[in-house]
């Protein structure tokens, strides 16, 4: 089964490949939907500032699935080799007029 078929089997219809360069950083943000990332290359480290352990960072690498709940505040650091993943989101309540709207929701929702 391909990686895209695998993530679609989890119930996600919007699946694409995303690559970030080495040591890129996304400051604390939220998404309007539940999101999942299947890591294909490199690694990422994630922290949830409003969790019970706000200082805890967790690093994920190739083959791991990272789930982030709807509207959960989180920040992300890419590893030294960057990170390529299959990000996807739950789109039950979303309607997009074009791919730019979709990406804006995933990045800044």
From TrEMBL:
<protein>
    <recommendedName>
        <fullName>Cupin 2 conserved barrel domain-containing protein</fullName>
    </recommendedName>
</protein>
<dbReference type="InterPro" id="IPR014710">
    <property type="entry name" value="RmlC-like_jellyroll"/>
</dbReference>
<dbReference type="InterPro" id="IPR011051">
    <property type="entry name" value="RmlC_Cupin_sf"/>
</dbReference>
């Amino acid at each position: 089964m391909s990686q895209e078929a695998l993530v679609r089997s989890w119930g996600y219809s919007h699946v694409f490949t995303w690559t970030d360069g080495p040591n890129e950083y996304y400051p604390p943000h939220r998404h309007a939907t539940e999101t999942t990332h299947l890591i294909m290359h490199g690694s990422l480290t994630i922290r949830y500032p409003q969790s019970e352990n706000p200082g805890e960072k967790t690093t994920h690498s190739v083959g791991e699935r990272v789930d982030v709940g709807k509207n959960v505040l989180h920040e992300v650091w890419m590893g030294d080799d960057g990170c390529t993943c299959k990000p996807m989101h739950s789109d039950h309540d979303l309607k997009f007029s074009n791919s730019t709207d979709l990406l804006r929701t995933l990045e800044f929702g």
